[in-house]
Amino acid sequence: MRPQPDFIHEFAPGKSERTLLLLHGTGGNERDLIQLGRELDPNAALLSPRGKVLENGMPRFFRRLAEGVFDLEDLKARTDELSNFVGSAAEHYGLNKNEIVAVGYSNGANIAASILLLRPTVLSAAILFRAMVPLAPEVQPDLGSTSVFIGAGSLDPIVPASNTKELVDLLRAAGADVTIRFFQSGHELTGNDVDAAREWLQH
Ligand code: MLT
Questions:
Q1: 49: alpha, beta or left, given left = phi > 0 and alpha = psi -120 to 50?
Q2: Cβ-count burial of 32 within 10 angstroms (0-12 exposed, 13-18 middle, 19+ buried)?
Q3: What atom in ligand 1 is closest to the CA of residue 25?
Q4: Atom of ligand 1 nearest to the CA of 111
């Protein structure tokens, strides 16, 4: 019997080999990014789990001690748990494991970055909106065949530009092909982010 994926999630089959792994922000759920996924790639399958951690009733993908201060042990364990979910969901739904592209916003972008750094074979690419450095990996991952788009807000009160640049450096040092775009916005996602990410995904 195929393993049952163990996160509450939405799944929508696609017409191409690509699957978008949609990872919501704090307080979101599995339905939040479905529309965004369709806008980014109308042909891709969509796999959208709900974060299992609750912070004052708000779903997240890992625990934090304060805004921007992460519980690293929990982050590592949750990164493994989510990576394993992606593997079992790929088997369950018959997805191509070599074409899984994460699309994360805020907390979802942070766990996607953590998957890149700790489980580098899970994702073929990632779109990270308003991401920060999740952790410093003990072992440098090999991201030589992974491409990453980062959409940052130049007025973001939660993610300073210096932190975004640190993330870019970390990913590039591991061999990732990183595109970084700064938008005139805060932590919120804008239409310009979506347009730029869509264009990036098409090339
Ligand atoms: C996080 O906790 O991942 C970041 O502080 C972003 C957020 O979710 O607010």
A1: beta
A2: buried
A3: 8
A4: 3
Does the annotation count 83 as an active-site position? no
What string of pLDDT tens digits covers the 203 residues of the chain? Answer: 455 569 999 999 999 999 999 999 999 999 999 999 999 999 999 999 999 999 999 999 999 999 889 999 999 999 999 999 999 999 999 999 999 999 999 999 999 999 999 999 999 999 999 999 999 999 999 999 999 999 999 999 999 999 999 999 999 999 999 999 999 999 999 999 999 999 999 98
Query: Of 107, 133, 163, 189, which is best to mutate to test ligand 1, by the most ligand atoms within 8 angstroms of its C-beta?
Result: 107
Look at the chain and count its residues.
Answer: 203
Strands 45-49 and 53-55, sheet pairing: unpaired
User: Which atom of ligand 1 sits closest to the CA of residue 107?
Assistant: 3
Residue 177 bears catalytic tag? no
State if pTM tops 0.70: yes
Query: CB within 8 A of 120, min separation 6: which ones?
Result: 141, 142, 143, 146, 174
Whether 110 is in the pocket of ligand 1, judged by its Cβ within 6 Å, is: yes
Among 55, 109, 56, 43, residue whose Cα is nearest residue 82: 109
Nearest residue to 169 via CA among 125, 113, 122, 89:
113
Determine whether 16 is an active site residue. Answer: no
